[in-house]
Every structure is written in C-alpha cells, then in structure tokens.
Write a structure and sequence with these properties.
heterodimer, A: alpha+beta, D-Maltodextrin-Binding Protein, domain 2, 6-stranded mixed sheet, 3-stranded antiparallel sheet, B: MetI-like fold
C-alpha cells in the first residue's frame, strides 16, 4: 500500500484546502474555453491529430498505454491527439488526490473517476451529462447501452443522466493452484472434488513432506478465508433480492449463515493439524514470502490470481526443481453435492469511469466521438486484437494472435509492446473475453475459458449514493478490523468457538447488519430504477 | 562595564523618556538582519499560519467541490462523533501507551548514547560509531519493517532459529498483540537514537574544557565527570528536548504502524491515526476531511496544553524552559 501519514500531512492538506478550495470549483458549466492541461502532462504518442484533448489516469496506466502498439493506431484512426495527464503514481495515489483535483478545478478535459463521484459531482455541475452527446454523436455507444441493460442501468442516474462510461473487465477469478509433482509424490492421483477430499489430500502431502522443515501444504497471501462458495457461506443477493452478508460481489462472506460457522470450524481443524500456513492465517505473510514458499516447496497448494501458475512456472519454479509443475484444480462441490462456482472479480469497474469536464464543452463532441470509436467494431478489433499483421492476423474472418504473450508481457517499460491487455485501464471500453483468454500464455489459456465459462459466477454490481458510501465507510472502519481480528482468533484458538454467538452479537452491535441494510437499500434503489 | 555606568550612558529626553526612534527607522537600521529573517517568515506564513484557516473544515461537512465558503456548518458534530465512538477509549489507550513507551525509551537512549560516545577519545572511532548509529535514520519504514518481518519470521527467521537452537519454541512475534508495542518502540529506538544523539553531542561541544580539567585535578573519575560535569551542562538541552517530545505524545508513526498492522495485532495496534485513516481517507471517492481535521485539531490542542504544562513545570523546578 502506498499511503502517507495523514496526521503528518495535515498542514499540507490544510494549505491545499485553504488555497484551492475557499470558493470551490463551482462547476462552471457553460464555459466554452478550452482548458489548459494542468498537472503533469506526460505527453502523447500521437504524431499530431487535428483534435486534441487531455485525459487523466494514474501514471502507471499512462506509461503502459504509451508503449502499446495499438495506441498510435487508435490516435491515427480517430485523427486525435491525447495529452495524457498523470494523476498520481498508482490507483491509491490517484484516488487520494482526485477529490482535491476535482474541487480545485485542476481536472483536465477528461479523466477517470469512480461511478459515485461521477454522479454526485456530475449533479453539482462538475461533469457533463453525456446522454445528449451519446444520442447525437455516438451511435456505437448508444447501441451498446441498448444491448447491455445492466451496464446502462448502472451508468444512468434516476433522472436519466449519464455522467460517465465505465470499463468492462474480463470475467476472471481466483483459482486453486497446486504442485502436481508434489501431489504425485504424495500418492494423490486424482484432484479433490470436495472439501473433505481436499483435506485428506493436504494430510497426505503433509505426511509425504514431513521431513521438510516449515512445510505447510496449504499456503497463500492476503485474506485466508477461501471457498465460501463450497460452504454456501459467501455474500450474495438471493433470488428474492435479499442481500446476505456485507456485499462484496461474492468475495466476502455472510457471517450469520450456518455455512460460515462450518467454514471457520474447518479452518480451525486445518490450523490445529498444521495443514495451513500460520503466517497466512495471522496476516503476516508477504507476497514475497508466499512466492518463495511456492517456489521452494514449502507449500503445495494455494489460491490466487488465475495467471499465477504461469508466473510461478516462469519465475524460477522449474529452476529450483526440474519436476516442478503447477496445475489448476476445479472448484469444490458444495456439501449437498452441487458444483460450486468461484465469484469473479467485478466485471463492471465502478472505479474506472471516464467523465468529461464541462469547462471543456467545446471539446465534448470530439471526446465522445473518440470514445464512440473505442466502442465501435473497428475500435474493439484494434484494442482487443491489436494491430493487424503485428499482433494478430485475420484468417477467414477469424482473428488469430501471432505474438506471444510471454514475450510481450516481459518487455520492459518504454519499449513498444504488441500485446493486448484488456484488464489494464486505457479508455473504458467493452470487453471481449474470448480475445482476452486467447492472448494469454499457453498454460493459462489451457484452463481459462473452460474455468471462467463454467466454474465462475458473476455477481451484480451495486451503486451507492454519497450518503450511503459515507455511512458504509464509517461502519466498515469499525466492523472490518473487528471481524478480521476475531476470525483469526477463532482459527488460531485464541478465542473459543463456544463464544461464537457472543461474537455474532458483538458484530451486530458494531454495525454489521447496518452495513447489510445499506447494501440492501442500494440494491433496492437499483432494482427500482 | 558595570550596570551603573551602562545606565548613565543611556541618552534621555528632558522628561526622562528615551528618544523615540520610529520603528521603520529601527528596521531600516537593521535591514540586512531583517532580510535574512524574511524567507523564514514567509515560509512560516505560507506553510504554518495560513493553513490554520483550513482547520475551520473541522466544523463543517466539508466538500471539496463546494469549498469552505459553501460547505454546510455542522458545529461540533465531527468532534462528538469521535468522542462518542465505541472505539474511542481503546484507541486513546493504544495511542497513549505506544507514545508513553516511546517517550520512556526513545527519549533517554540517545542521551545515554551521546554521553558514552563523548567519552571516546579516539576521534576516528568516535566518528565511525556516530556515522554508523546515524545510518538507520535514512532507512525507510517500509524497508525497516520488511527486515523485521524476515528476522522474526517463525519459519526460518534468524531470531527464531537462534531460539530453536537453545531448545526454545518459535515465537510468532509479528502476530502476537503483546509483542507489537515492544517491537514498535525497538524499531523507533534503532532508527532514531543516532540521529537524536547529534543534538546532545552538539551541546557537549560547548562545555568549557576547563571544567573537565578542574574536575580531573580534583580527582574526579570518568563516571563522576559524566554525572557532575557533562550531564548538568547539557541539562537545558535535555529539558527542551523533553518538552518537545511531550508535544509529540499523541503522534505515532502511522507509516510504521500500518506496515506492522495485521488482523492478529489489531487489539494493540489500532491507534487514533489508523482509525482516522480508515474513517476519513478510505471512503471510495469521498474523503471525510472534516472528521480527519476534527481529530487532528483535538490532538493539537491537547499537545499544546501538555507542552505549556511541561514548560511551566520545568521553569518552576529546573529553571530551564522552552520559552
């Protein structure tokens, strides 16, 4: 994480507030003067189009975009010059400064904000309503909105305004990856299909590697609570529209479901039997130490981002052990024998929304036309398949990639990259999952499509208003650490399971159910809309 | 010149008053000095005094978009929200304990170190030790905490390997709430003792060497010279540094805390600043600046009272003070 001490920075913050915010930006809509690109314009890859506009993203995305081979083509096709403005080094840095930039009038012609910011500040005049522009100038965006009601519903406010266009994200999720060579050595010939089989296999691995010091078969990084779907313990919105648990698009859990208690009991047994890495459970595992363990055989199974198997294979795995092999197993069956599905990462990125500054009204038509090209068939082909003849080629109407993902992805920053990476932020656009999976490395491609088409589940995205967001954040600030801390205590035995019911009462008192109520209200409002 | 002769040399008007020289003339007379002062004054005005006006947002439901002039006034709502928070006392306890331990160890160790270092007669050794002790100050908190994680890991960490070699079971230092405060304080000591010692070493250079000579002639041992000459001579500096340290009593190193923070140690690691950070600055696009400013203002007022109190106490009992 990249934050700075809030208290230390107070004088600077206060100065910024005092200097920039006394009058507010006021959203001076109506001005036709072209805005100057305040902030650090990081240049453009264009050789000079007839139309230009400034566009702000985090610096890392700008840097990636400048290297992409399809970017100059896009600018040429649209006869546009885009002045990329760095709004902060990474996402955390960007979002921290964004509010001040909007308020102080430093926002360029266009830029990335969150959907809530787009609506709240859009209503106050900070961003343009794109609906009339789309109707007039953007037939491709209009058609896309008509064909994708969920997307359209999310970007349209209750008064029918559209203040921003959101990025679609590929359908991807975490996967369970395992060392197939270690499984073989432990005598495991078939992949586990249930939690019980998985536990038995972890025990076999432990037995086979008992002489390896500090070997824990199941290891990982970040939060250790996985497989809520196998216990029917995940957060969700049921068929009747009822929200269960603090809603996190299936990536969280429903504390009050019977399955969640069983899930914790399962983790307790893993911890007691030394089947799970205690550093992971305690929350002290770093990415570095997790990687080292997976590369050096101190762990055999993990649950992580779906491209991690390929990363481990190409970052030292086979060098450490010639037999090193990583594979992916399918999600487990639920306790009643149904095949569970992994929750996918948000497919509609409410944190990646392009908006237009009303001070740049004179350029708005041009910007929306540029975005319409991005949404067009030609634009999609270019961004999803890259430059014809360089990244891919057309064979009987079917696009085939002629570049290698592992070669392109390994290229250093500052060199032309022929790859296509739809998961990266460029210009918010629709996604083409098949193209995305098709460009991946050989190992990832071998399971991606089947896994995400058949064993992953998309959860609806919720939209909160400013008050809901504020209250939710305040409550989460109290509830989340208490939740995390107590779950670790239960699993490590620092707190007895006999206190489970009092723990549930504590969480209710801290505001757990209030957060669920906010999520329910947000869902109901969206449904009504 | 005696006091009497100095008094008689002052020129006086007929009514006994001193001749009035306009303040502008006085400034003009010392213009070079005032010019030297000017950059500092401008810096203070811009970066210290002007931002103070921004603190009014503590009494508002501040929106960056609306600005200070158009944001809603909410009185003491933000202050009340913090004071009535269920976590308030836990946060205050954690913050104060961390700060007190810090004061207890981080403050005296540089003094002791400087006293010993001052006794080294070989200049090259003295310089080498001083440089070495100063070095950790330049290591970032992220690197420092990362080193700590590696050293203390229960799986292959050096400290636990040593413990194991003595037949002692591994200790999960970074996941034990009882170890959080000692580790935080130890890191601060390691990072700051060399840097802070410079101030005391500088104060020691101004001690009159005749005092040491006289003490030596009177047969004072090395310990006696430290306690009877060096320590009393730098007492004023120690007192001033102590008063300043008291002013920082509610300030913790948030960087370090957040890096050492994990679900296992929330009970002791969650402090006012980390809570405010979660509340005010992780709000998905709408930072709650007003809440952050209100808590910051409360901390500042309390720190001001503590500094004034300590200064008064010091003036009364030690004859040394900050102002």
């Amino acid at each position: 994480m990249n934050w700075k001490p809030v208290m230390k920075g107070t004088p600077v913050l206060a100065l910024a507030v005092a200097l920039s915010a006394c009058s507010g930006s006021g959203g001076n809509s109506g001005s036709t003067a072209s805005p100057s690109s305040s902030g650090a314009a990081s240049g453009s890859a264009s050789s000079g189009g007839s139309f230009s506009f400034s566009y702000m993203m985090a610096a890392k995305y700008n840097n990636w975009l400048k290297d992409l081979a399809w970017y100059p083509e896009l600018l040429k096709e649209t006869n546009t010059q885009v002045n990329l403005v760095d709004g902060g080094q990474d996402d955390a840095d960007y979002s921290k400064n964004l509010d001040l930039k909007i308020g102080s009038g430093e926002f360029p012609d266009a830029g990335i904000v969150s959907l809530s910011q787009a609506e709240v500040y859009g209503k106050q005049g900070a961003f343009m309503d794109l609906k009339p522009l789309i109707d007039k100038e953007a037939p491709n965006i209009k058609a896309f909105l008509e064909q994708n009601p969920d997307y359209a519903n999310l970007v349209t406010d209750k008064d029918g305004h559209i203040y921003g266009l959101m990025q679609e994200y590929p359908t991807i999720s975490s996967v369970t990856l395992y060392r197939s060579d270690m499984f073989k050595k432990a005598g495991i010939t078939q992949n586990p299909t249930t939690i019980q089989e998985f536990t038995d296999d972890l025990k076999k691995l432990q037995e086979a590697y008992k002489s390896t010091q500090n070997f824990y078969p199941f290891t990982g990084r970040d939060g250790f609570i996985r497989y809520t779907e196998a216990f029917d313990a995940g957060d969700k919105i049921d068929a009747d529209g009822k929200v269960h648990g603090i809603y996190n698009l299936g990536a969280g859990y429903d504390l009050y479901s019977p399955g969640f208690k069983q899930l914790i009991e399962w983790y307790i047994s893993l911890y007691k039997d030394k089947l799970i890495d205690p550093e992971w459970v305690a929350g002290t595992q770093t990415e570095d130490s997790w990687q080292t363990k997976m590369l050096t055989g101190k762990g055999a199974v993990s649950d992580d981002f779906f491209t991690r198997p390929a990363w481990l294979m190409s970052n030292g795995g086979p060098k450490n052990d010639p037999n090193y092999d990583i594979q992916v197993m399918l999600p487990f069956k639920t306790q009643d024998g149904q095949q569970s599905k992994r929750p996918v990462y948000p497919t509609l990125r409410t944190d990646r929304v392009i908006v237009i500054n009303p001070k740049s009204k004179a350029k708005a038509d041009g910007i929306i036309k540029f975005m319409d090209y991005v949404f067009s068939e030609k634009g999609r082909q270019l961004m999803d398949y890259g430059v014809e003849g360089t990244t891919s080629k057309d064979e009987n109407g079917k696009k085939t990639f002629i570049t290698d993902f592992s070669v392109e992805a390994a290229k250093p920053l500052g060199t032309t990259n022929n790859g296509v990476y739809q998961d990266r932020l460029t210009f918010p656009a629709p996604v083409d999952n098949d193209a995305y999976y098709d460009f991946l490395d050989k190992l990832t491609k071998s399971y991606a499509k089947n896994y995400f088409d058949n064993y992953a589940q998309v959860f609806p995205t919720l939209k909160y208003d400013a008050d809901q967001l504020k209250e939710r954040t305040n409550l989460l600030a109290k509830v989340q650490p208490a939740l995390d801390s107590n779950i670790v205590k239960f699993v490590t035995g620092a707190r007895s399971m006999s206190e489970w019911d009092s723990f549930l009462s504590e969480m209710e008192q801290a505001g757990y159910k209030q957060i669920v109520d906010i999520d329910q209200a947000a869902y109901d409002a969206m449904k009504q809309q | 010149m005696s006091a009497q002769s100095r008094a008689t040399s002052v020129v006086r008007m007929k009514d006994g008053s001193r001749p009035r020289k306009s303040w502008l003339k006085q400034i003009w007379g010392l213009k070079i000095l005032y010019l030297i002062l000017l950059p500092g004054l401008i810096q203070m005005l811009l970066f210290k005094l002007l931002p103070l006006f921004g603190l009014v947002i503590a009494f508002q439901d501040y929106s960056v978009f609306n600005g200070i002039l158009h944001s809603d006034w909410v009185g003491f709502k933000n202050f009340a929200a913090f004071l009535h928070d269920d976590y308030f006392w836990r946060l205050v306890r954690n913050t104060l304990l961390l700060a007190l331990f810090n004061l207890l160890f981080v403050f005296p160790i540089p003094v002791i170190f400087a006293l010993f270092l001052n006794e080294i007669r070989v200049r090259a050794v003295k310089r080498f030790v001083q440089t070495l002790s100063f070095f950790p100050y330049f290591i970032s908190s992220a690197v420092m905490v990362s080193i700590l994680y590696r050293l203390l890991s229960p799986q292959g960490g050096l400290v636990n390997e040593v413990l194991n070699s003595f037949g002692i079971q591994s200790v999960f230092f970074m996941a034990d709430p009882n170890w959080f405060r000692p580790l935080y304080v130890a890191l601060n000591v390691w990072q700051l003792f060399g840097y802070n010692a410079i101030i005391y070493l500088a104060a020691m250079t101004s001690i009159d060497p005749n005092l040491y000579e006289a003490a030596e002639m009177d047969g004072a041992s090395r310990w006696q010279r430290i306690f009877r000459v060096t320590l009393p001579s730098i007492r004023g500096t120690i007192v001033v540094m102590f008063i300043l340290a008291i002013g920082q009593i509610l300030t913790v190193d948030l960087d370090k805390i957040l890096l050492m923070y994990n679900p296992s140690v929330y009970d002791t690691a969650d402090v006012i600043q980390s809570y405010v950070y979660r509340q005010a600055f992780a709000s998905g696009g709408f930072p709650n600046y007003s809440f952050g400013a209100a808590v910051g203002l409360m901390q500042s007022v309390l720190a001001f009272v503590l500094v004034m109190g300590a200064n008064r106490f010091s003036k009364k009992f030690t004859e040394s003070s900050l102002f």
